[in-house]
Design a protein that fits this description.
This protein has about 190 residues and is an alpha+beta fold.
């Protein structure tokens, strides 16, 4: 019995190492008590709420001391020294063409992406990070049916978050495919 368990554990470890390959949806669906569920990091840009797959994220840090890079595209905010490693910071607001009255967030955050998954050291500048949340498949509407093909490429789906105090209200969270976003701008990183 111990041999089977250790083979299973090795298998899980190998799958984690290979996270960068395969279907995005297959990788983010995890078996929960009530069926399929996902874990996401929720964040805000302007007034809109977005989410990334938790397993694409390494950490969240304060968005300070970004050094601008001359002659770079507008969506490359600059670089930072993250514990001795140079990390490129991209501005999701510029990539998604989000216009907002809030030019500078009070406490901006950088979502540092998993280098194994992305292939490069990349951080994403956002206005605010809320939480890590788990949602069931019944709370998610997949984005494959989007009328706009460009939006369908970078959006996995929409998460319907029911408000605790009033079930009639829903908060919609746009679940983004950060791998696809990075792939689209990779030549400039």
């Amino acid at each position: 019995m111990e041999t089977i368990t250790s083979v299973s554990e090795k298998s899980r470890r190998n799958r984690r190492k290979r996270r960068g390959t395969g279907s995005v949806v297959r990788k983010i669906l995890a078996r929960g008590k009530s069926g399929n569920s996902i874990q996401v990091v929720e964040f805000k840009i302007g007034k809109e709420i977005f989410a990334f797959d938790l397993f694409d994220i390494r950490e969240v840090i304060a968005g300070e001391d970004i050094t601008p890079v001359p002659e770079s595209p507008p969506y490359i905010k600059g670089i930072i020294d993250l514990r001795g490693s140079i990390t490129t910071i991209i501005d999701l607001k510029e990539i998604l063409h989000i216009t907002t009255d809030e030019e500078v967030a009070k406490n901006p955050r950088i979502i540092v992406l998993d280098q194994v998954v992305m292939g490069k050291k990349i951080g994403v500048l956002v206005h605010e990070v809320f939480s890590v949340s788990t949602y069931g498949s019944d709370e998610i509407e997949r984005g494959e049916n989007s009328a706009d093909q460009k939006i369908g490429e970078v959006m996995i789906g929409v998460i319907r978050q029911h408000q605790m105090e009033d079930n009639a209200k829903e908060k919609l969270i746009l679940w983004l495919n950060i791998k696809k976003i990075v792939e689209n701008i990779r030549q400039n990183l």
